[in-house]
Amino acid sequence: MTDRHELILTCPKGLEGLLLEEATALGLEESREQTSAIRGFGTLEVAYRLCLWSRLANRVLLVISRFPTVDAETLYQGVHAVDWADHLQPAGSLAVEFSGRGSGIDNTHFGALKVKDAIVDRLRTASGERPSIDKFDPDLRVHLRLDKGQAVLSLDLSGHSLHQRGYRLQQGAAPLKENLAAAILMRAGWPRIAAAGGALTDPMCGVGTFLVEGAMMAADIAPNLKRERWGFSAWLGHVPALWSRLHAEAQARAEVGLAKPPLWIRGYEADPRLIQPGRNNIERAGLAGWIKVYQGDVGDFEPRPDQNQKGLVICNPPYGERLGDEASLLYLYQNLGERLRQACLGWEAAIFTAAPDLGKRMGIRSHKQYAFWNGALPCKLLLIKVELDQFVTGQRATPHEEHSQQQAPVEQARLSEGGQMFANRLQKNLRQLGKWARREGIECYRLYDADMPEYALAIDLYGDWVHVQEYAPPRSIDPEKAQVRLLDALAAIPQALGIPREKVVVKRRERQTGSRQYERQASQGEFLEVTEGGVKLLVNLTDYLDTGLFLDHRPLRLRIQREAAGKRFLNLFCYTATATVHAAKGGARSTTSVDLSKTYLDWARRNLSLNGLSDRQRLEQGDVMAWLEEDRGEYDLIFIDPPTFSNSKRMEGVFDVQRDHQVLLDLAMARLAAGGTLYFSNNFRKFVLDASLSERYAVEEISSETLDEDFRRNPHIHRAWKLQAR
């Protein structure tokens, strides 16, 4: 073997340019980029130095052979031709990694098997001794890359991937790999800032990866200084004396670096469960004297280094993967932007995100952007100089002269043209409907219902809370445009209504099947008490698609309250029994409420108890159709508001309101006392009431009478009928 080797360094996609600069500085010659890798030439000392010092590479591969291959046999012969006795003892252990395809080899497992067979056959002794296979901790890890008819055979000097520094034994839900974090810090200019004595802070630090990688750079600590096992540790070509010298030099540099006064490096994390794991990682990295981590929310973030020092704010905010994440994430990014403007004037900032549209909502311009990949996810690194001319705000007051260098303006970021148009519509609706709601004493009402078709939202006010439902856009709408409009609207809502962002709850309403509209969406379990017609009701804005109070039925509930005095009231498909509470408040002699869900009956019980109405109120769990067939009670006032469709596991068969409403109403009318009234409603837009019902009963459609001002813009929200015996 010569003292000059071809070396290949693999890395995450997008890091090739940075790795090229780093490897060249570490001694790699004639280097050039490939996809997710660079290649060049260097001595064994350079290879060792790359293993020890590269912050960006995944693996350091030492090429031992290149040969053409046309089929599996030529692949075998090319590998077998290598004198493997120079690399591995016959009794040693081996692992093979194979990548690429072609030359009749389309299966990487088969390719790896041929490579393994060639090595084992070459090393097998006369007594039958041969290398064993150890995929996890072998003496020698061999890599073969097949590309366009050429095989590149290499030894993996790194062993386990170099991003595994060893300090991060505990991590959060979506951690960045250490070498990606290092690349982001480099692109953000941290080495330059650190050399000038600047500070580093992460307002959403998780388990501290940015902080540890940044501190190792600042203290001149080789990223893999503490690694004990390497891919070359048992390689026969390993030169221990050379490695020991390089390792000792790195150890000495780390000791000098750590002896310097530490830079101000601080992390803040809202989730208390991540604080101790982050501190443990920092301790394992030997950097507890440099890095401090505290519990803190982004909304309160304010770096306070000594002597008014400036530096770099870096973070990797969540991207959002679940429906309904848009609002919380938008407001998180807006909070971050506000904290940068208010508390970090003169700092630099680096925001790494897979949701650049959200990054644009921070109200502060990035002067430079870099493309990265986090695994298979395309991401952007937004670099920001937190200066007044970078702010994207509304009418900006000029700071007082003596504070102009210390204070950033505090006003909110300017809305887009579409966002401002949406805000104007909300404010117009609020003026009109707010006046009506105050006059009628209504606390909860629909403020907006897709009034502007391109903003397909339903927005309801529950006191000082806002409940937003996004109607899923039709397939003909470009998803990216729909997302931009949604973010425009969500940005406008708090500003237009003067409501804190944390009191805006967002859900997406799609076409529901079965009982999906009743399925739990979250599990916060927080109930809000609201009032309607003199009764108190509990709503839950977060945990289910519906809140426990159908606002469009308000007039019908109040009608029931007016008519209920002295009557026996039956509420079928009662949900949270809000109509029952109104009936009881109106003086009903007794109430019976039937629903299949124990969860909603418990909710109903709480609604009744909240109003001191627990006496003479029956709550029955069961399938309504089956219950009606068995019940022999008599009722003076009946309310039925069934789902369009239900296939609950607790009921026999499937309920379809169009198919089954005739049988349902006949069963219910059989229980209606002489002179009694049945109110029937549903929200199936294509619903047609069976004509034969009018032959048996007095039937009157009262849909228009059951719509208040807030739902008149959407007369198809529900239809309602009044039925009485002829």
Spell out the key features of this protein.
726 residues, alpha/beta, VC0802-like, Rossmann fold, Transcription Regulator spoIIAA, 4 domains, eight-stranded mixed β-sheet, seven-stranded mixed β-sheet
- Number of self-contained structural domains: 4
Q: Give the overall shape.
A: elongated
Count helical runs: 19
Helix content: 25-40%
CATH fold call of the largest domain: Rossmann fold
Mean pLDDT: 90
CA-to-CA gap between the ends?
Answer: 105 Å
| SS-based class | alpha/beta
Find the CATH superfamily of the largest domain.
Vaccinia Virus protein VP39
Tally of DSSP β-strands: 30
For the largest beta-sheet, the strand count, sense and barrel status come to: 8 strands, mixed
CATH architecture of the largest domain: 3-Layer(aba) Sandwich
| Largest sheet strand order | 2-3-1-4-8-7-5-6
CA-based gyration radius: 34 Å
Beta-strand content bin:
15-25%
Low-confidence stretches: 394-410, 511-523
- The CATH class of the largest domain turns out to be Alpha Beta
Q: How would you describe this structure to a colleague?
A:
The model is unreliable at 394-410 and 511-523 (pLDDT under 50). The strands form six sheets. The chain has an eight-stranded mixed sheet with strand order 2-3-1-4-8-7-5-6. Strands 11-10-9-12-13-15-14 form a seven-stranded mixed sheet. The longest helix is centred in the middle third of the chain and has 24 residues, at 417-440. With 726 residues, it is of the alpha/beta class. Helix 2 runs parallel beside helix 8 (240-259), helix 5 crosses helix 7 and helix 10 crosses helix 13. A hairpin with an 8-residue loop joins strand 26 and strand 27. The chain is 31% helix and 25% strand. The chain is built from 19 helices and 30 strands. The termini are far apart. The protein has four domains: 4-156, VC0802-like; 178-219 and 260-401, Rossmann fold; 417-510, Transcription Regulator spoIIAA; 524-725, Vaccinia Virus protein VP39 (Rossmann fold, 3-Layer(aba) Sandwich).
